[in-house]
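Hi R.,

Here's the input for the iron/sulfur cluster complex you asked about:
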Amino acid sequence: MAFDIVIVGGGPAGLTAAIRLRQENPELSVCLLEKGSEVGAHIVSGAVLEPTTLAELFPDWKERGAPLDTPVSDEKLLFLTEKSALPVPALHLLMPQMDNRGNYVISLGAFCRWLGEQAEALGVEIYPGFAGADLFMEGGKVCGVITGDMGVNRKGEEKPDYMPGMILRAKQTILAEGARGSLSKKAMAAFDLRKDADPQTFGLGIKEVWEIPAEKHRPGFVQHSFGWPLDTQTYGGAFLYHFGKNLVSYGFITALDYRNPWLSPFEEMQRTKQHPAFREHFEGGRRIIYGARAISEGGVQSLPHPVFPGGVLTGDCAGFLNMPKIKGIHTSMKSGIIAAEAVVDAIQNGQSEATSYMERLKNSWLWKELHAARNIRPAFSHWGMLGGALYSGIDSMIFRGKAPWTLRHRHADNETLLPAEQAPKINYPKADGKLTFNRAESVFLSNLSHDEDQPVHLQVQDMATWKATNLARFAAPESRYCPAGVYETSETEELVINAQNCVHCKSCDIKDPTQNINWCTPEGSSGPNYPSGM
Ligand SMILES: Cc1cc2nc3c(=O)[nH]c(=O)nc-3n(C[C@H](O)[C@H](O)[C@H](O)COP(=O)(O)OP(=O)(O)OC[C@H]3O[C@@H](n4cnc5c(N)ncnc54)[C@H](O)[C@@H]3O)c2cc1C
Ligand code: SF4
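And here is the predicted structure with iron/sulfur cluster in place:
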């Protein structure tokens, strides 16, 4: 099949790019692939939306019925100790990036479904349930993508319902796969796009949605925390947003450059709910959805060159997220708009590379915003939690993001673990089944579908390396960082992979110490089926 443009990924970046392409030139044929069973099925986010880019895309978004129903009404940033919570005073002055006035708490899944409808109304062809499994290369150039085979058994043999992958040819391919995209990783390696960039650094966001009693619901209330339970060298914290009809979105982000291999992001997330500042929000409620996803935290200094022969990178797969704001929706959407305009330009001028993308990015508010935010995340890696918090106050209030230096990211996340014997073990409390839960009960709420009789999509290249490094040196850290309990160590010290539980967060691809685990796309439609509240 041949199109002018193929987009891989139906998140905010890909859908926005699709819409802008057709707004710019309704003659262009645009196809969008989404590996989830429908648009929104694999989407995980907080999500507080800054509506700036949406207003650029559709100035009449209100009349079009965009699902932005809960304006932010009140917000708090708390520094937690084990028993107490200190609110950061004069928040908007000290940390202007945390100012959420004018923003909305949304379900990003519902928002993406709405964007999908807008795209289809403009003539974009959306194919949910189809994963982009490989880049289609010809003459050193990306000429489209190849979708995954369907109907292959665990041994790699064809089943009766076998359907080979399709080649979708395109003049330009827009990769919009979100953090640690599998095709984006291939494109970055094939064209050496990261050669001038700092290592990308990621966080793992784990999230639950709760339904709580109406009398306790405070629509638009936003709370963030830092400090306890993480140690002072680990970056991260919790968020809690009241939205929709008696819903609360609660989650915890743990930076994946953490050092202690005994740390479990899932357990950190569970135990934070027991803190008095969070606990009260869940009392009398019930947990209805669970999910997890990596985010790209590195900022502007970790961005790869986003243009390659035949295509571009947009959104979180490049790393357009503003970490101090904990926001990547409006930035991903903006990169989608800019990418679309550059791609239209390239096609109209018969160019194979959308060379104007970089220049357009550099002239945009997106670049200014990311540039101003660039030193805050690395400050926490350099000076720990308190030093980082102090630096971020100084950077925001005195330098206003214009400090004449740029702090670098020195390590990739897979390089930071200490040997297990040099790190303190962490005793996590047992789940109580009411407020806190174990992984198996949690993954049940991700509504997974995954045919077990298909090739394992978590490819461990070399089991001997796993034994010598992961098991012997780091005490099998994947059994703790995987939020879905996919990895277990058997009694005979073999690695067991429960691939059917994978929620596609991509943390194993990022954090595995020797980069021995490669996350590949499973059959289309596999994975979570998050409902609209997510
Ligand atoms: C827990 C958490 C909380 C967050 N909170 C906020 C917040 O409050 N505000 C905010 O602005 N941002 C927040 N973010 C960040 C925000 O969600 C992301 O920055 C944003 O969703 C990135 O958009 P994207 O389109 O680049 O990628 P994604 O949203 O990740 O979408 C990528 C899509 O591509 C699909 N895909 C991937 N690979 C393939 C493939 N090979 N073939 C086919 N389909 C593919 C995926 O299934 C997915 O649907 C949060 C993120 C997390 C994880
Ligand atoms: S197997 Fe990997 S990608 Fe899947 S849920 Fe676990 S850590 Fe995430």
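One thing worth noting: DSSP finds 15 helices and 24 strands in the chain.

Cheers,
M.
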